[in-house]
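Risk mitigation, structural track. In case the binding assays with magnesium ion fail to produce interpretable data, a predicted complex structure has been prepared as a fallback.
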Amino acid sequence: MKSIVCGIDLGTTNSVIAFLRDGYAEAIAVEDGTAILPSVVSFEAGDCSYWVGQRAKNRRAAFPEATISSVKRLMGKDTTITACQRSFTPEDISSYILKHLAERASEHLGERIEKVVVTVPAYFDDAQRRATIRAGELAGLDVVRIVNEPTAAALVYDHVQSDAGEESPYVMVYDLGGGTFDVSILEIRGEIKEVLASSGDTSLGGDDFDERLKDYLLKELVKQAGLESIEEDVRLRVRLLDIAERAKIALSDRPYVKVQEAAVAMVGGRPLNLDIELSRDTFQSLTEDLIDRTMRKVEEVLKEANIDSDDIGKIILVGGATRMPAVIEALSVLFHESVEHSVDPDLCVALGAAIQAGLITGESVGQILLDVTAHSLGVKTLDMVDPETNKPDYFSTIIRRNTRIPVSRAEVYRTIVDRQRGVDVEVFQGESFSCLENTLVGSFFYDLKPAPAYSPVVVEFAYDREGLVRICVDQKGYDNRKEVTLDIRNRKVEDVPERKAAETPVNYVAEKAGRLVRDNRLSENLRQVIRQVLASYEEAIRAGENEDRVEEIEDRLLEIMEQAEEELELSE
Ligand code: ADP
Ligand code: MG
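Fallback model:
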């Protein structure tokens, strides 16, 4: 019998082991049902025995000196790390992680794993690559090949169903991990995948986002406790960083998160609790510049490869931190198209390594099977505005296509008028920005309690494996929740009589613009401009001018309205 060769993504923050079975690449659950193993090793003081993975990570707050993370940064360097009064080389620590992965895989597969393919960043030099092979040897493994991470990611995409037709041979891999950012341009010609240019920042990653949020939480903690300051010792720092990371991850799926943590710190024998609600907006404004920095690198690497952004056929998103909506939004703006995950960004590199392993042993590689959503699912923002676009009839995505299920995601929308009676929640699936081109899968009416215009309504979709979507609408702060279940496959809304979308002759853009004209908190100058553009907009509609012309004026109007909203926000 041929022995199985596994693929390993030995990451700075997390590591994953995968293998190929009957042509399918699969990541192995190594702890508590998850395939993602934190690349952390923690030592016991007495006998120097150690823990690897989540258990080690959990010990970090209590035993910071005995717990080692991000050892990948030290690979290939002539240095040692001290713990439990012994010194370890970076290869030693990495070998414990590799050994742990291989042992779990051996248990899972029922045969001893001896050969592996391991991935490394494209920029790793010879010493760093050799150190990685050495770590494998120390773990008792034969590293049959070292593969570049972006190349591994690109290999997976060869085996994912793609509906694109003629494609450019240029692929960009955007990898935002825990502590590093890498971006590479690859040229793909059949089996050959060449890295044309790669760039990045080895001190920029998800951790920096945690750090920003941690600083913010610390300030809030100080404020809530009515203190001048709190001394930030290692324990408090690690605890707050953990809380920040969890909040950050939650904010990738929903617009608000409650952070409630007891006894975060002790001051004068008194425990301090943290109890605040964070919004995605706040988080994004704290971290905007970090995303910008990655975009500058993207531009740099395109220039270096001498390729225009329009010539990139595919953008592959890798790394857990690409789950942050701000990453996808910034890339979509830069590339003038909607960018999405096609494969789980956490597993992608390991799956690619497994495919490479399969190619070496002569396995045939089939399509990768993933339990993902086939279409994007969202709502029409007609009598709710999407704060991003302000446009009616806009299809606002809540769960993107190719999202692993089960999943639950939420977004926030705003009402348009004061004391708005309710909203028609119309659920669509499809990939177009316009609802007209997508499929209506169900709709229902949601009664609102009297509230001022622009008050938030949170819409949450929870999608399960059976194709049922539980929709929960919640008027924030008004104790007004409504839940319905939608059967996507049979297009049925349950518990609620189906109701046709109300024909609405009202032009919400004009209506809202009219309100702004009357709003005396705005500067006279701005109101004057809105009045003029609104007049030509209404005139264009009345005169039945062609659509492009009307849209052009509408865009102009929306732009000024946005400016007005900003002015209002500032004046609050
Ligand atoms: P590495 O390649 O460095 O090992 P990963 O690709 O595993 O790293 O990414 C780890 C980073 O991704 C961490 O900073 C983690 O907080 C972040 N992350 C994981 N899931 C999410 C999520 N849903 N939203 C935002 N960040 C996430
Ligand atoms: Mg990685």
